[in-house]
Give the backbone structure.
Amino acid sequence: MEKSLNKLSAHGLLDFAIEISKHDDRIDRCKKHQGRTIAFVTLCAVLSGFRDWEEIGEYGKCKQSLMEEYLGPLDSMPSHDTISRFFSLLKPESFEGVYREWISEVFRLRSSPTKDGERRDQIAIDGKEMCGAREDSPVRIVSAYAVKSGISLGQKKVGEKTNEIPAVQELVTELDMSDCIVTADAMHCQKKTCEAIIEAGGDFFLFAKGNQEAVKEAVEVAMSHPRNNNDRYKTTDKPDGRDWWIRQCISVGEPLYLGRLHKEWTGVQSFGVIISERPGQKEVIREERYFITSLKMNAKLFLQTARDHWAVENGLHWRLDVDFQEDKSRKKRNAALNFSLVNKMAMAILSFDKKKEPLRRKRQRAALKDEYLKELLGNLEEIL
């Protein structure tokens, strides 16, 4: 399986560049360099830790002989202005479509069939503001992140004068959610979102807060019912000698206890509460979060699912900001959205290397050692 993934990364990367070139919106008489050359060089440069147009242009000049091993003989390398113009004119919708086809194949290979009792893959959906890409208003995108695979399956720009809710609902309908657990922030505890996830073949796990006060109150009241059958699971963590942190889940597998609401919310099978306790300065800090889900009662699974949702922050958003410096980028409009996908693609390819070390170090090695970059890209013979 590992060998297959490495070959896919190489063959898929060059095919990816070729597919992108089909959406090249530059004027034909101005196309001194092919779109596939620009895309491939950019992807390799980002894999190697370079992030602005000038750096990428210089990378291409320094690595021309290496690029020619994959692209064939080249008269010259594209300048930073050419690269910038290409990604500024490239429609994000076109780039997103090509990206989703490529990443869905990666996701398929990396998602092995689940065994009895084993957790399915979880898709955590969350929004992120691209601080450096401000136009008339902040640019915000929502991403769908596969927790176990560690890859972003797709993204959607949040439209002007709207919020994330319709963008998430559209993203759910456009991606393959089959046999996956879908989690999102409390704002996405919406009837239409639940329906969209079920229709896409997935299961939802959503928290109910003030935006769905009726659901929150119904769950809270049902949890206090003395006759309900519930499942409980509790963990105690004391990481690195710090203060303890107790987490527990109490779940109920009878939606009828929710009264009329169980008919209004498609697919609800269970509900419950996640309780977190940790020591404060003067007293114990206790937090209760109520949830509904289309999964059957399983307190251990629910507790882990709630905890793993934050992987979208740590595994995706944090890495984009820290390792890829996305918030410091000043790219605008199409270029900003397209380059976010380039970063996410680089993250996926770097994750093929199972060495337990920071992405920053892997990217430094790719910049310094051509053999390591070739290892990431796969065998040249497989491409030919």
